[in-house]
Design a protein that fits this description.
- The protein has 389 residues and is α/β, with parallel strands linked by helices.
- It has 11 helices and 19 strands.
- Helix 7 (264-276) packs parallel to helix 9 (298-311).
- It starts with a strand and ends in an 8-residue tail after the last strand.
- Bound molecules: magnesium ion.
Length: 389
């Protein structure tokens, strides 16, 4: 629970048990950029300091599995809701902790509400007992007759569009739910008691997701048709090991120490490729302790990472890498590295760049104790995207 000013103890109630007839699917479970609408709404309430959140739902098991557990929201309480929004709110109110003095009611399908707006509505309710977000009406509003023709145009200067959050001194909201007929929102029910409800300027971004067109586009390849990844690796130089960089054997008195052939260039490109595909890093897929990879040819590992990225939906189209070594001089080998890497990740060699530099004598690389490499990879969808969301 959240302590407000003047000893107020706050909780939030989120009715999310509606049938979403106008949306045609359960909009609160639909994902926007990978995060369900309901989770976004709860995160917004938490950002305003509302720790105790009760959500009225239809299918508690599904909400727990798809929204709460995957997003670290296990402490959110679920209450099985009723047939109407008012019933669901009333059922949630009946489950509030005893110490609760004030409650915020917020629509599950308004995921973009700012913490500032929630805070302003709460502050107004602490002062006056009841407050709600609302917007002025900017379009003309016509009252129509049976034939769908205009009967009268209303004076919009005294009309407001109701939003949530709405916030109340709890006894007042409980009384409204007992004494007045169920309304379409809680502010209207409290107002029907004859109690003033203070209106606070709402936000256009705080729109309710009501019809499919309201859902923002997904973040899949249809809207962001590329992905980038970053890779970095460093290995120690020791005598008695071959030096392999970018798949090219380079004559030198020392080589890089590692479980595989310790090719830092291949490892950096592989990490960048896995990064672009959202697949973590090579350590996760090729554990350093695994005997299978002892002395492994890193070009082979890189080709496997390319296949894994492709399976995950991402095909590399460009790479840039930087290899930092004080000695030996690597510039003469840059073209061969480029060709070997291009073959491993199957892109034209003109789309891969290898830069060799020194570390200007600075740090471990500058002292010649090791060789480091960095890479970025650009990838594009490897297949037609699935439906957004
Ligand atoms: Mg490595």
């Amino acid at each position: 629970m959240t302590a407000g000013r003047n000893g107020a103890v706050w909780a939030a109630v989120v009715p999310a048990a509606g049938s979403a007839r106008r949306m045609g699917f359960d909009k609160t479970l639909a994902r926007v950029h990978g995060v369900p609408v309901l989770a976004r709404t709860i995160f917004g309430l938490r950002r305003s300091g509302l720790e105790r959140v009760l959500v009225g739902v239809r299918d508690a098991a599904r909400v727990r599995a798809e929204v709460l557990r995957p997003f670290g929201l296990d402490d959110v309480a679920l209450v099985v809701g009723g047939e109407t929004r008012a019933e669901t709110v009333a059922l949630c109110l009946a489950h509030l902790p005893d110490a609760t003095t004030h409650v915020v009611v917020h629509d599950a399908a308004r995921p973009n509400c700012s913490a500032d707006l929630i805070g302003r509505v709460m502050a107004a309710a602490e002062e006056s007992g009841a407050a709600a977000a609302a917007l002025p009406v900017v379009d003309s509003v016509h009252r129509v007759g049976g034939a769908g023709c205009i009967v009268e145009t209303l004076d919009r200067s005294d009309l407001r569009l109701a939003q949530t959050p709405q916030a109340f001194h709890l006894p007042l909201l409980l009384r409204a739910h007992q004494e007045v007929p169920a309304g379409s929102d809680d502010a209207g029910m409290v107002a029907a008691l004859g109690v003033p409800v203070r209106l606070v300027d709402g936000e256009r971004d705080n729109a309710k997701l009501t019809v499919p067109a309201d859902m923002p586009p997904g973040d899949d390849a249809s809207t962001v048709p590329f992905a980038v990844g970053l890779g970095h690796d460093i290995h120690r130089l020791v005598p008695g090991r071959p030096l392999v960089l970018g798949g090219v054997r380079i004559p030198y008195e020392c080589g890089l120490l590692g479980h595989s052939d310790a090719d830092v260039v291949c490892h950096a490109v592989a990490d960048a490729l896995l990064g672009a595909a959202g697949l973590g890093d090579i350590g996760r897929h090729f554990p350093p302790g695994d005997p299978v990879y002892a002395g492994a040819d890193s070009l082979v590992l890189l080709a496997r990472c390319r296949a894994m990225a492709e399976d995950a939906g991402w095909r590399p189209v460009q790479a840039d890498c930087l290899v930092l070594a004080e000695r030996p001089r690597l510039a003469p080998y840059a073209e061969s590295m480029r060709a070997a890497l291009a073959m491993a990740i199957r892109i034209p060699s003109g789309r891969i760049n290898v830069k060799a530099g020194t570390n200007e004598g600075l740090g471990a690389v500058g002292r010649g104790e090791g060789i480091a490499a960095q890479a970025v990879v650009l990838a594009v969808p490897s297949r037609a995207p699935a439906r957004p969301l």
